[in-house]
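Page 47, continued from p. 46.
Same chain as before, 239 aa.
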Amino acid sequence: MRSIKIFNNNAVSTVMPDGREAIVLGRGIGFNKRPGDPISEELVEKVYYVQDEMQTKFLQMLQDVRPDVLEAAERIIAAAEKDGFSMSNQATISLIDHISFAIERQSGGVSLPNLLLSETRLLYRREFDLGRRALDIIRECDAIFIGNLKKYGWYDKVWQAYAGLIPVKTVGVKGDERSYEWATNLRAIVSEDAMTADWVELPPALLRETSNRILNEVKGINRVLYDISTKPPASIEWE
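Result:
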């Protein structure tokens, strides 16, 4: 197969062996490619035979969508298929559109109410409370980490940084008793296009202060990890 048009690093159009034109998606499939270049079939993750009105909408979306939005949609689809769900081409297009719109709203400071919030809190109280507590922990850890990046002059030197939550409880000691609490992962990377990324060698003093503050100030955390994985093979985000 050879590329006809390059939409972005993750999407190109091509002619399939059966003679039909299609859009193929795959992580890095269009990276450094030009029209006419061969396409590695090993990189193909999705093939779309779309036509007419849907094709016009899909092609326009691929030209406008950010690479990280497409990557996020691919991860959601992969997770759904792993659980036995099958998503149609139209559903995939809708998902990409929804993610792009959500980012656009967030960037513009537009907040829409969650109309199912009351029902979720009422019907799934335990899950709701657990999710809310997890979000609070992530926000507290992230605020400490980002604050220290600014304090030490590293905030503008990294491309992306965050503190995440590893939903596995580990054994520790707090006071004179054992503790079974979650771990948080700190991630700071540099990248140019989100297709590849390298971890940042932050100063030990910054990491030590961040770790000490999180362990002493954030209830529910007894372990702090710093991610030194490159992309590939690891992704920028944790899943």
